[in-house]
Amino acid sequence: DFLAIPITSVPSESAFSSGGRLLDPHRSRLHYSTVEAMMCTRSWIMEDMQRDSEAAAEALEGLFSAMTVE
């Protein structure tokens, strides 16, 4: 999964610790370039999904218009 945040971003010694903060300020946010890449990817995926749904709707309209009731 290319949008997943790697699990290795949390040190193993603090992952199972019962006290204190698990993430320091540096590890609690994504780099701006990562956020930008994720936003662009989301935009591309949504555009493809919209284009695919429009194509499917056109295909169904063509199919239904070709049908005749006798």
Automatic annotation (TrEMBL):
<dbReference type="GO" id="GO:0046983">
    <property type="term" value="F:protein dimerization activity"/>
</dbReference>
<feature type="domain" description="HAT C-terminal dimerisation">
    <location>
        <begin position="1"/>
        <end position="45"/>
    </location>
</feature>
<dbReference type="InterPro" id="IPR008906">
    <property type="entry name" value="HATC_C_dom"/>
</dbReference>
<dbReference type="Pfam" id="PF05699">
    <property type="entry name" value="Dimer_Tnp_hAT"/>
</dbReference>
<protein>
    <recommendedName>
        <fullName>HAT C-terminal dimerisation domain-containing protein</fullName>
    </recommendedName>
</protein>
<dbReference type="InterPro" id="IPR012337">
    <property type="entry name" value="RNaseH-like_sf"/>
</dbReference>
